[in-house]
Design a protein that fits this description.
Distance between the termini: 21 Å
Number of helices: 4
Strand order of the largest sheet: 1-2
Order of helices and strands: HHEEHH
Structural class: alpha+beta
Number of strands: 2
Shape: globular
Strand content: 5-15%
Largest sheet: 2 strands, antiparallel
Length: 116
Amino acid sequence: MPADFRKAIKDIAVQLLRNAVVHGIEAPDERAREGKPAAGSIRLEFRDDGVGGYQLVVEDDGAGLSLDRIRDSAATRLRHRRAGAGLEPRQLIALLMRPGFSTVEDADGDAGRGVE
């Protein structure tokens, strides 16, 4: 596997992990109200898909992605009211990997920056 491919996968995996921790996993009291354990869980797996490609799988037991929030950010950040309206869920999720794209107002050291 070429070094630039490994670096890209690492950068994407780190961003997905950051987003799961910062945006996905709820605070312990909120998790308790939802009937979840106080501590969240995240699973990260990189595997051969068996047909010449790879899959990067990140799963958490948090709140999940808000496609409406991503769509709203697309409209605001991409400066076009319909920017997010016609996008399929996979396309909206892909926006989260764009440098600088975020659903939060201010990026910090942990999330809100996209993949750099």
